[in-house]
């Protein structure tokens, strides 16, 4: 699995609850449409482990079969629509790409 991992923080004038609801409803409707999307996990950040980790609201992991599939999704009209919806909401994000390896399955 090749993943796009997004760590995001809400816009300064939104509540955490509003941001999570938007991410899991309105924004999710666009995310579901991404071509080649095989899986999507979303974690609502409820607490930071330590002070240097504070200030984040959620994590999304979007899974694709290959890097090529992910790159096609990022070049798609569906991705452009999702980016346009985000617009200038002024939240923060970290976005990274990489190959997933399962390290433990209980």
From TrEMBL:
Domain of life: Bacteria
Pfam families: EthD
GO molecular function: oxidoreductase activity
InterPro entries from the UniProt entry: Dimeric_a/b-barrel, EthD_dom
Domain EthD, first and last residues per copy: 12-83
The name this protein goes by in its record: Ethyl tert-butyl ether degradation protein EthD
Taxonomic source organism: Amycolatopsis vastitatis
């Amino acid at each position: 699995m090749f993943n796009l991992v997004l760590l995001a923080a809400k816009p300064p004038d939104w509540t955490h609850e509003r941001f999570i609801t938007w991410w899991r409803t309105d924004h999710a409707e666009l995310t579901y449409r991404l071509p080649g999307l095989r899986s999507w996990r979303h974690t609502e950040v409820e607490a930071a482990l330590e002070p240097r980790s504070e200030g984040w609201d959620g994590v999304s992991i979007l899974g694709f079969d290959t890097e090529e599939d992910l790159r096609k999704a990022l070049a798609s009209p569906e991705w452009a629509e999702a980016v346009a919806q985000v617009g200038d909401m002024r939240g923060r994000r970290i976005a990274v790409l990489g190959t997933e390896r399962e390290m433990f399955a209980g």
